[in-house]
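Q: What residues go here?
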């Protein structure tokens, strides 16, 4: 299937590694010009060179902290100035810390809000006129499977992701007339640095991963490219009638029936 992403301009946030990097790579493989953005400039530039080399696509690295308003404005202005349009926006960010509800103070709630909800709202709002000008667009939010079934210690993540789900529903409603679709992708357990860093320190990492995989129907942890494939499809011409959804990529781990 030709996803018809040639000539599309895609902005993928939080993309020097993990899910964002895999999404940027897959969109580049499909022919899009991809702008990648995260904080560490050296890592970001290395990722841009790697994707450029493996795909031959045009990759532009713009160091950005998605939680900072001035960075977000600079990023979108740069892309709009260079290309005159934005076709695809993939909202993504680092994850907030895991702990019990009673341990988080106001500052941690505020940080999670700025990183995992406000950044998605702000970047979507900034990209919107450039999608409208292009005659349509795709906004895809990377959230978490915790919006579907409870994940222990994920109160900050779950609260902010639920906000994104509500926002995306309203945005899908309002932006449909502009031919802009808005969808959420909800990862279960996908092997990235974030997952590696949250393994218990006192157990062999392979053993700990196997233990976590045991409760997943497909019997294994996902690979970033398996999530990226769904994002590329949602970004494609073929996904033109899919909007306002939240789709899990979790190997069947969610046990909810709806
Ligand atoms: N992997 C999973 O199984 C899983 C499951 C559920 C939800 N998620 C969510 O999916 C998102 C991505 O996770 P991941 O596993 O890919 O994480 P990861 O491997 O730790 O990668 C995080 C990426 O985000 C960038 N980043 C972090 N904070 C940023 C900021 N303020 N501004 C711009 N870029 C920032 C990092 O680069 P810099 O540090 O250089 O900025 C890095 O490129 C997270 O929100 C996570 O909670 C992941």
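A:
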């Amino acid at each position: 299937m030709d996803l018809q992403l040639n000539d599309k301009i895609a902005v993928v946030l939080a993309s020097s590694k993990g899910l964002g990097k895999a999404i940027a790579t897959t969109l580049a493989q499909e022919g899009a010009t991809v702008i990648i953005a995260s904080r560490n400039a050296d890592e970001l530039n290395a990722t841009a060179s790697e994707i450029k080399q493996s795909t031959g696509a045009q990759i532009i690295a713009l160091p950005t902290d998605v939680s900072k308003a001035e960075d977000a404005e600079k990023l979108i202005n740069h892309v709009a100035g260079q290309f005159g349009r934005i076709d695809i926006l993939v909202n993504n960010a680092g994850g907030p810390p895991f702990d019990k509800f009673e341990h988080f103070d106001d500052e941690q709630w505020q940080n999670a809000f700025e990183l995992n909800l406000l950044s998605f709202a702000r970047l979507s709002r900034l990209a919107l006129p450039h999608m409208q000008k292009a005659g349509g667009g795709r906004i895809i939010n990377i959230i978490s499977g915790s919006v579907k079934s409870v994940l222990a210690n994920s109160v900050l993540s779950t609260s902010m992701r639920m906000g994104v789900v509500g926002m995306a529903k309203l945005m899908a409603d309002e932006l449909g007339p502009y031919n802009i679709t808005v969808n959420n992708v909800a990862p279960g357990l996908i092997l990235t640095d974030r997952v590696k860093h949250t393994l218990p320190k006192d157990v062999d990492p392979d053993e700990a991963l196997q233990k976590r995989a045991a409760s997943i129907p497909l019997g294994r942890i996902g690979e970033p490219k398996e999530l990226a494939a769904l994002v590329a499809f949602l970004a494609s011409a073929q996904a033109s009638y899919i909007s306002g959804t939240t789709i899990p990529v979790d190997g069947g781990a969610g046990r909810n029936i709806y």
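A: Context that may help when evaluating the design: The CA atoms of residues 197 and 242 lie 34 Å apart. The first strand starts at residue 9 and ends at 13.
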